Predict the 3D structure of the following.
Amino acid sequence: MILVETRIDLRRALEEPRSRGDRIGLVPTMGYLHEGHLSLVSLARNESDFLAASIFVNPLQFGPEEDLEAYPRDLDRDLALLEDRGVDLVFHPSVDEMYPLGSPLVTVDPGPMARVLCGAYRPGHFRGVLTVVARLFGLIRPHLAVFGRKDYQQGVLVRRMCRDLEMEVEVLLGPIVREADGLAMSSRNSYLDSREREEASGLHRALEKARAAFREGERGAESLRAVLEEELRAYPSLSLQYGEVVHPETLKPVNPVMPGSVMAVAAFCGRTRLIDNLILGA
């Protein structure tokens, strides 16, 4: 596995697979990898001749009160895990290497789909996400990129960016990987203390309660949200930020709720913000 930290070395390392006509895959990450990330790597490995991963904690997607400096990092462990999963190249740039002219003046406007769900509470977040993803796509020029379904809104926006800007990158969304108690795997789970960790799985249980109500015939969005909220009352550490049922591609609210709609939630567990979602009728 090749580790490169500069754009020049990245360009050189990609010359050979490009000259062979390899299908190049990319898994963008912010590091501190868990089995959820690694499942995306395995998916991309099966779809690629040459597989790259990036490890970069992107400052553009963090708000002023968010955890940029505290975000967990363990590069040596990440590299060992990626090599074990068959990654061919890891791009690990510094902030100055990624943004050599400082904070970019030209960024990607994510449009109205970034003003709902997480975007309503994290202004500027998805502008930062799409800008760094566009930059990675420009540097690596992958044929496909794999993102996790846990960050559902992110995946929808990346797909729409590729479609609207003719980027010609196939975007795959890998399934959510969960702990044994249902908690969606996330690097931020490491922030939870023992009590919070025990109660954090209540977020998934609440989603499953809503899904059960849908299976039993409930089609009202507000009623499904009420089921979610009622279940969450059993977990004092969890404070719901939003719970919405949306169209899987437009992210617009749906009512009545049809099969294939996405129920997306965000909640604070103590001071840690968690997100999750599921597809109703799946």
Residues 125-140 form the longest helix (16 residues).
